[in-house]
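Dear colleague,

Thank you for sharing your sequence with our group. We've completed the structure prediction you requested, and as agreed, I am returning the results in plain text so they can be pasted directly into your records. Please verify that the sequence below matches your submission; if there's any discrepancy, let me know and we will rerun it promptly.
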Amino acid sequence: MPDLPPGSEQPQPKRRNSKTHTGDRDTTASAYPQPQPPIKPVPSPQTDAHAIDKGLFDAPRTKSSAVRLNRPPTTQAQPLPAPLTPIPPRSQQGQAATRNLPHATRSGTQPQGGTGRNVHWLLLVGLGMMAMLVLWVTGSWVLAWGRDRYYDIRYGYPRTYQTDAVVGHGGDSPQHPSHFIAINMNREAIIIELMAGNPAKSVVYTAPVYIAGQNGNLAPVTLEFRDVTGDKKVDMIVHIHLQNQDQYYVFVNDGSKFRPSNGNDKIRI
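Please find the predicted structure tokens below.
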């Protein structure tokens, strides 16, 4: 070591910092970044690195050596051919009607692809029976209504019927027949006899029946005179014209007036 002049200190030897040196290589941060070596990919244990390197998972190549670009073909729009026959212009009303129909095309035809449904014959039979039932009910109601209006015109209300007949009471004769009035009074058949047309010789008969049924108070009461017991005397038959059927009751002629019939009378209608 060379001798140093007096008064001078001996320089201290440089110490290596363990924080900045590792072994023989200096790891002190440089002012300029050093290029890093490329990192090789580590093959995954679940894939074949040799297959990846060889490109087996790439898209298959074409047999041609020319390179094709996947460009969409560009086509130029061709003009539509002119119609062979001219189409007449539509009226505004027809166009509005066509627009209001959601399932109709401009030409008025059904859209393509629609299929019709077959109707079972039992459905047609059921519709026919229902129509017949409606017609029957409606016809019955109209017939009953018309008959009641006819009775209103002919018999009035209350229903009243009048006739003349020679029955051998009170000295009646063809010149002076007895006059009879039949009335439906509150569902009871009441008959008034004017012997020989004389109101002073009047007799009232009430049929022992009650006129029941729908609109029984509107049923007319008519009279018929003929011998039904075979004793050569004219008897009186009371007819009650109900809506669905007719009822009758017989008064037997005893020579001076009429009496109600009983079980001992042999009546033949």
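Summary note from our side: The mean pLDDT is 75.

Kind regards,
the structure core
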